[in-house]
Amino acid sequence: MIARRRLALFAGALAVAVLVTFLPARARQGASPSRPSGPPSVRVGLVFDVGGRGDKSFNDAAYEGLVRAERELGAEIAYLEPSGAEDRESALRLFASRGTDLVIGVGFIFSSDIDTVAKDYPRIHFACVDYAPRGEIPSNVAALAFKEEEGSFLVGAAAGLLTKTKHVGFAGGMIGPLIRKFEVGFEAGAKATCPACVVHAGYVGPTPEAYHDPGKAKVLAATQIAGGADVLYHASGASGHGVFEAAREAKVLAIGVDSDQHDDMPGVVATSMVKRADVAVLAVIREAKEGTFRAGMRISGLAEGGVDWVHEGPHASLVPRDVVDKVEALRAEVIAGRIKVPRE
What we know:
By secondary structure, the chain is an alpha/beta fold. The chain has 2 domains: 6-25 and 39-146 and 277-300, Rossmann fold (3-Layer(aba) Sandwich); 148-275 and 311-335, Response regulator (Rossmann fold, 3-Layer(aba) Sandwich). It is built from 9 helices and 14 strands. The longest helix is centred in the middle third of the chain and has 17 residues, at 177-193. Residues 1-20 and 23-36 have low confidence and may be disordered.
């Protein structure tokens, strides 16, 4: 494993948890150092969303894309974990001021911060995962977004087929338009395969801290289980572990989000809605390296491979083959445009 020098920053303007200094790509696990051939290396700085690296969800998916860029493209990478909301803009500015080729913010809460900093550093490329437009997008910003409602539709359809009580649950993180897409897509999928199903939906809270509060998420999930839900889907970042704990204690099924979350609680997590933040991050880094960076809005769904669900292999062993076949048939209908999944 690469040994990276870590610096703790305690300046009042920027109190971040971790800064990893830029280092060239090199071998992992003791293999011989190597650098891919082609254009010169690219320096990439990534700033995590609430929950940070190790959330086994959205942040970890983005981090996987960063690490793949180091391994496959020879990128020189660094990341920051802000200690609070007030540090997001400062973290972005720190990378930009160092002449980083590409600065990436992970999460919709970075949207306005990236817009502000990008305008001050017009020669630096920026990207935001889950970008939420608030007017004109700066000409140096790649706005990366996904059709979460389409992936949620698939796991909702699976939930409708897996439930024995005809009650399923949705636990969202922060109340707002982004997570609402997960909820609406999930409900539409559940109703597509189980018209009589009742969907119990709730949110952990109104602020970004809702993505890092498994205790409240567990209480929310337990309430839904008490109402009859025997399949629970969460879109709440690191808070989702609380949903999994409630499901385990009640001996019901859970559905993960953003990454394949099977290993977070085997035997409980039946499947996951996968959002390919890793692919989006790797793609925009490749563009920055090759000089083909494209600014503007990019939205990817099932047809583009931006979202998916876990339905093959041992991590989907709790999903019967007939359920997989029925959900995959619905996928084909969505991609063909014969099913329009609602988003609000």
